[in-house]
Amino acid sequence: MKPFAVFCLSVIFVFIAHFLGISILFHLPGAFYQSAGSLLLFTMLYVGLSFLIEPAEKLIISLLKLISLNKWAAFFAAEMTTILFLWTVVFAADELLEDILLTTSAEVLIAVSFFAVDKWLYPQLQKFNTIS
């Protein structure tokens, strides 16, 4: 029972961290949302869509690593693919909700911010994503 409780607390912590991060990022470009509930729904959609789209992102990055001749070009393409997929998730969550209004620049800012936070928080995972 204890591992399940630790798992539940971890999931709650990650969700709260995403919620706080998204609420802070929404204030930077002046994005519009009607209530905290709509922001909470956006966060749930963002997390859910991220889980759905991540396997496709990893598959495309693996294919880029296989077909690329230059390791730096493959590395750059992999990083841009990650940002593109993050933007796709933010865009889809924004379009699915009518209570949230994000400009394209705000969507890109949120995607790049999450990319930067991911690189900062999980540097040990980056050695597995680099081109050998």
Automatic annotation (TrEMBL):
<feature type="transmembrane region" description="Helical">
    <location>
        <begin position="7"/>
        <end position="26"/>
    </location>
</feature>
<keyword id="KW-0812">Transmembrane</keyword>
<keyword id="KW-1133">Transmembrane helix</keyword>
<feature type="transmembrane region" description="Helical">
    <location>
        <begin position="99"/>
        <end position="117"/>
    </location>
</feature>
<keyword id="KW-0472">Membrane</keyword>
<dbReference type="Pfam" id="PF14184">
    <property type="entry name" value="YrvL"/>
</dbReference>
<dbReference type="InterPro" id="IPR025912">
    <property type="entry name" value="YrvL"/>
</dbReference>
<protein>
    <submittedName>
        <fullName>Peptidase</fullName>
    </submittedName>
</protein>
<feature type="transmembrane region" description="Helical">
    <location>
        <begin position="32"/>
        <end position="53"/>
    </location>
</feature>
<feature type="transmembrane region" description="Helical">
    <location>
        <begin position="73"/>
        <end position="93"/>
    </location>
</feature>
